[in-house]
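Task card 7
Instruction: Convert sequence to structure tokens.
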Amino acid sequence: MAGNFKMMAKTLYGFEPILAKELRNLGAGHVEEGVRNVTFEGDTGFMYKANLCLRTALKVFKPIKTFRVFNEKDLYRHIYDLDWPDMFDVEKTFAIDSIANTEVFDNSMFVSLKAKDAIVDKFRAVVRDRPNVKTQDPDIRINIHIYKNTCTVSLDSSGNSLHQRGYRILTNIAPINEVLAAGLLLKSGWDGQTDFFDPMCGSGTFLIEAAMIACNIPVNINRESYAFMHWNDYDAELHDKIVDASLKKVREFHHKIIGYDKAPSAVRKTQENVDHANLSDYITVERKDFFRADKPVEGKLHMVFNPPYGERLPIDMEIFYGKIGDTLKQVYPGTEAWLITSNLEALKHVGLKPSKKIKTFNGKLEARLVKYDIYEGTKKAKKLDRN
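Output:
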């Protein structure tokens, strides 16, 4: 297909297979998993679509040059040779993010400064003026990655991380990253075919991401800007077409998405975020204590939640996690319950045998996504029902 080029999407640890599947479903070519990244091919319209629709991507990069580098003169020359004034206007601000894993350069900041000099000098030579560097929220982001003696220069098409969806205006004390939430939901097998429940909803991230998955809503539909909008070749008409085409693939959802939290402030924050995401038709939020409330629906239920870890919210872990297990056993028959925690010791007090344990990270904290199957009646009865 004419106009295709190679791109790379960054993601979180363990989410590479999910992101690769997302890319294939969107229509990407030559999809290959890396470490915390997936490479793929597509055209400019696909790059717009990737930023709009990928739930588990943090960034989408467009590599523009790869070269061998043995010293700082090589770095400067190759970057200077690129036609920067053709890519963005001198009035735009820019920033450079560098990663150097090499004996030649042991300081990423030095790489960024040398690259900045080359870009500024190129502008001065061509247009007799220079763009300004802006480290916070620049118009243009340039990524430089050096591994051994290979340097790749890319344009960051996303700008701010894609976890910044644009719907979350209020957060609680320990909010979960939106990309992490979406990835955990997809790992849990959530597909919108049952009712969904988060009994400790915080600021509502799981609820909102679950609704977007269930309805196939483009995950960044509420986001106002991307870095590619500041490129000289930005095609606003094409971008509008991509948005319209993606919105036509939204589907109906015929089940319930319910959130509980015992804190009035959490319920208020969740409701405001849900309203801001235009999802109040699909999500119900109530002030209730998980340990004192009844199961919110009859029949099958898909539950995903992020209980306190004890990192920022002081609680008695042994008692708290014991109550989680007791409540699931006594109140939630017919439920597939998933929870994420970085307190691996606390999991021992749940008192239920997990059917799955998946290693993940919540920020810098190593965590586990754990599944508990709560059967209708006993396991033996469940097996008999299947036969």
